[in-house]
Design brief:
The protein is an alpha+beta fold. The protein has a single domain, classed as Nucleic acid-binding proteins (OB fold (Dihydrolipoamide Acetyltransferase, E2P), Beta Barrel), CATH 2.40.50.140. The protein is 23% helix and 34% strand. Strand 2 and strand 3 form a beta hairpin. It is elongated and about 70 Å long.
């Protein structure tokens, strides 16, 4: 009986800890760019995982921002906006105990499509040029 009480206490503490880290945000912010990868994956726990390519200036390397989505409505909005420049609102949750809630610590909670002005050239992320062959 004592072992069951200890086990129940451990499970309650684990559940409470998980609830706190999923509902308390360490930081939040916005990132803008082009979603280049977004998929629903996992063996047991299916999660939405994505990658945002952020381009600061033409000719510079892209920075990748990996994120997770927990809300199905947000995932649908992301799927509908593929190929467009978007701004993602995210919250960072540190210490999530398992990848069943998401593979990253950045959880996207909202998305909006960013209009690119007509006079401004669209910058699409590109692969960097290969390095020249060494001279012999």
């Amino acid at each position: 009986m004592r072992i069951l009480s200890i086990l129940a206490l451990i499970l309650a503490l684990f559940g409470g800890y998980t609830w706190v880290v999923l509902n308390w945000s360490y930081s939040s912010g916005e990132r803008a760019g082009y979603v280049q990868k977004f998929s629903h994956k996992g063996w047991l726990c299916k999660t939405w995982e994505g990658e945002l390519a952020m381009v600061t200036m033409p000719g510079t390397l892209t920075e990748k921002f990996e994120f997770s989505v927990r809300d199905a409505a947000v995932a649908q909005k992301l799927n509908d906006s593929m190929g467009q420049r978007v701004s993602l609102h995210y919250e960072q949750h540190l210490g999530v105990p398992t990848s069943c809630f998401g593979e990253t610590q950045y959880f996207v909670s909202d998305i909006r499509v960013v209009d690119v002005p007509d006079g401004e050239k669209r910058v699409v992320p590109a692969m960097p040029a290969p390095a020249p062959a060494p001279a012999k």
